[in-house]
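ping. complex inputs:
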Amino acid sequence: MSDFILLPGEFRILERLRLNPSRSFSGRVRGERLTAKRGLSIEFSDYREYAEGDDLRHLDWNVLARLDTPIMKTYRDEEDLAVHLLIDASSSMSFGEPSKFEQAKRLAAAIAYVALCGGDALYPATLGLRTPPIQGLRNRTSFQRFAAWCSSHQPEGNAGLAASAKAFASSSARAGLCILLTDGFDPEIAQGIRILAGRGHEVNLLQVLSDIELDPDIEGDLRLIDAESGEAVEITANAPTLREYRKRLEVHNKELEAEVLRSGGKYAQVNAKTSLEIAVRDILIKKGWVKS
Amino acid sequence: MNLLNPSSLLLLLPLAAAIIALYLLRMRRKDLRVPASFLWPERTDEIRANSLFQKLKFSWLLVLQLLALALLGFAFSQPQMKQKGLAGAVTCVVLDASASMNTKEGSRTRFEMGLGQVNQMISSASPGDRLALIVAGSQPSVIFPLSSDPAKQKLALTKARPTDADADVGEALRLAAALVGTTEKAQIVVLSDGVFGPVENFSPGKAGVKFSVIGKETENLGIQALGSTPTDKGLLLYCGVNNYGAKAKQASLNLYADGKLLDSVKVDAAPAKVWNKTVLAPPGVKVFEARLKSGDAFPTDDYAVSLTSAGSSLRVLLVGKGDMFIEKALALEARVTLERAAQVPNAEKKSSPGPGVYDIVIFDGAPAEPVKARGVLVFGSPSGLSYVSGQGTAKNPKPGDSEQHPLTKGVDFSEVYIDTASKVQETAGGKALVSSSAGPLVVAHDGPTREAYVAFEPLNSDFPLTIGFPIFLSNALDWLGGKSAGAEISISPGQSFAIPTTAQEVKVDGENLSLTVPTKDQRAVVKGVDRVGEYKITGGGSKKLFVSLRSDRESDITPNSKLNLGAKSVAGQSSVDRLADIWKPLLLLALLVLAGEWWFFARRS
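pong. complex structure:
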């Protein structure tokens, strides 16, 4: 793998894609995203009566000739989209082969590249690991900086997923598309999603899980130590215990998905082993996360 | 319940403590990092402990292991449970078939109750258990030998029948001892009311003896005595009815003379008292019968017969050291009531006042003495006899032809081998009936007292082994008694008797029994007529046979709770049971519990 995280062929696939948020957001600079604001673009928005001082270039001369009334044409404004790419860097992401964190980074790189190509403002950040904030990235030329930022992190945080999400929500980050790449292993994660959504973000959650979580292959009498909290649980790994675990995981994931959907966002689950090409095709494209 | 090895139970405590201690050990678990522990249920099953102590937690595995241990410990203690039915792996049942076993206990007789117990034993027998049944009637009878075939045993059981006889239970017990006495842990089970004679010369060997008491009934009214005695006014008939119970009883007594009702009286018998009745007999009466209508539980002794004709009953005294051949031959004479004595009782001596009680006295090797009896038969020594004189002894005298005389009728002395005989000579009044080169061998003397002398003792010759011996004794009873046997015979149940006849066979027909007896050596020995009643005998003439029971022992139907076997006594019990080993099912149960424990363990681990 190159320093750019993505392979050359993958760049070609991603170049023609654009992020597809469910709603529009106000931008800071002019961009390629239409907003609800009136502005200067080629996209017609509405008519209004002429007022003194209006730019006569937008006067509808045909209406004036027919009705003898000056009517102005208005147009939708185009601004950039704030894309907050939140990568879970907590210790739990280090599990799996390849690790969930590796998969999360590759997916994040793919989404980042799509966002940068689309002229969106990219704000990468980590969850579960306190890292200094990075300035917003624009244009595809910034992708190298993103890749460097991404490569500099390891999944070793233990700040807690929900707590990190709450901290992000309380920051001054402007409302935008908030994409979470996480395993979702925090019992309080639903609350974090609610707070993010409450701040005006569209929360899209891509849950990355490995086989270790989906189908654990363990047996015997074990003391399970939580990778983040260090809490221990004593179990006898037998059929009933594993059955109970799978049931709990399924319930947790369902609750997670329900919370995301309730907030108006998108939810998808991906295996850490799934190739990027398949993930882009079957999840990002098929489920409407991106569009051509 | 009984434990053969109770000490093994002591092992239970330390073993249980060891198992519990294993559960007190804390499990050392392997640490494993996981992405999220909150998804895992805290679910521990203590199946392997290898660290130091923890608080004892409830565990089904512990419960199952302790249960299996308890079952194993209990099985090793070899517990035994009492089971009704068979008394052991090898059991010989002696079922009393004496008259008292016909006592009714509710709807069933004691004998039927005994059969029910045997049936239960057969049904409860385990495969391999061997069971034999001996019915103790007048003669012991093996109904089925030691076997383990319940179907055949139950089929054979239908052949068992009660008798009205005074049973010889001792002989049956000796037979049982011969059958199982050499087998370890064998059991002889006596099913009886305990109403039978004392048992002597019995040793059960290695076998144990159990006694199951059958019956509870105690009240009985029975005819104890029936007979006649000559008086100045004629023949006086007497009848005695005994109340064997503890309550006063009333009954109706009918007396018959030659089948015709002579008198009917009401009996009012006080407890343990005899009620008597006498009545003058009509002239020429031969058969005197008494029938009691008491409605009690034991009807067998409610019927009695007495023959009044001369010769129909003879009371014989045998004086001497005893001769089995003479006794056996006399026992086959139904009319004979035999008594034995080493010497003549004073009351019977002619010198004593009063009448004598014996009809005939037989001196077997003992010196003859003048007696009051109307007939005397002497074997061996001629001393004291007036019609022969002794002249020493003769070796191997060869008998010659016999003279025609009632004594020698049908008897061939010519082939008799005599080892030693008294050398005698007949004197006045004596008539030599059989002579030899050494002198007369049989001499008869007819006078106020009829006398016969045989110059040799039967044991000094092979005379008892010949056909002529019982015929000679029968002839002697006829001639010495003054009358030949009549057309009526009266016996007690089960008594054997002989009938002289030239017919091929003799038939005995009665209400309860029919027999056909083949004739051998001009006489039929009838055995097995053991039910009370009147019978008709046909074959070479017609006779009437009357069978009645007069036995104080059998009539006293109160069950005995203790069985006296000589020096040893066995306490009775209400039912026979056995101590059956139950360690095998316990072991199986323990294995099942262990299998369940393994399944439970495998399912959880």
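The longest helix of chain A spans residues 239-262.
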